[in-house]
């Protein structure tokens, strides 16, 4: 009988020890999970947009706008991109409203008034209804992964009277976690080795095969290889370089653009950029 009681006591003690070990193990797993969340490991960021389009005609003037307005995502990133869109549409005196529908309408209305006023001051009339002044802007999301989102901006204006008009196109990349715009933080310090890849990208754009042919097109010293007015930005298959009109060539050659693949440009990327691209597969 004493032996049975002794075994019983040992059984209870063993059960208690097993319970304590199991409980401690569960708490340890929970703490590790919280730490993973704290340091942001493998955290998927949701970012969605709504495309808003608006156009307006008055007499012979035309204006149009299209934006991909952030609707869901990390708070700081949404606020940063919304603020950028607003200031891009309105260089001065932006509307007080936070309603993007009112933004696109106000942009077109202001644009039409400005075009009409310019025509009146210059005493210029369009040759035909197809030759009137026009202006517009597109701010579109072009790529994202779990930690970064990239927009491209296209602006154009055409007055009339036989002019060729003006336009610009460039891209911007934001980090989703805190809304930081990367701009100058994508590449390491630029060196001669990267210039070789940039020249190859320009050759492909212009459809030439030699440095001599490229030199005939460009108006700058290719040995110095100037960077675009607007910094390069991240896209699905690499880093996009988009030169503005007159950056490196005459207007007739346009605004050269090309993408250097990630497997080529990786040695020249900043640690910050590497952390943003070496994650989950892109959404599109």
Can you describe this structure?
The protein has 284 residues and is of the alpha+beta class. It is 38% helix and 24% strand. The chain has helices at 2-38, 75-89, 100-122, 192-206, 211-217, 262-265, 271-277, and strands at 48-58, 61-72, 134-144, 148-158, 166-175, 233-235, 238-242, 257-261. Strand 6 and strand 7 form a beta hairpin. The protein is flat, with a radius of gyration of 28 Å. The N and C termini lie far apart (74 Å). Residues 1-42 and 280-284 have low confidence and may be disordered.
Distance between the first and last residues' Cα: 74 Å
User: What is the overall shape?
Assistant: flat
Low-confidence stretches: 1-42, 280-284
Biggest sheet, strands in spatial order? 1-2-3-4-5
- How many strands? 8
Mean pLDDT: 82
Query: What is the chain-wise order of helices and strands?
Result: HEEHHEEEHHEEEHH
Structure in a nutshell:
Helices cover 38% and strands 24% of the residues.
What is the fold's blueprint, element by element?
Blueprint: H1 2-38, E1 48-58, E2 61-72, H2 75-89, H3 100-122, E3 134-144, E4 148-158, E5 166-175, H4 192-206, H5 211-217, E6 233-235, E7 238-242, E8 257-261, H6 262-265, H7 271-277
Parallel strand pairs: 2-3
Antiparallel strand pairs: 1-2, 3-4, 4-5, 6-7, 7-8
What descriptive keywords fit this protein?
284 residues, alpha+beta, five-stranded mixed beta sheet, 7 helices, 8 strands, disordered N terminus
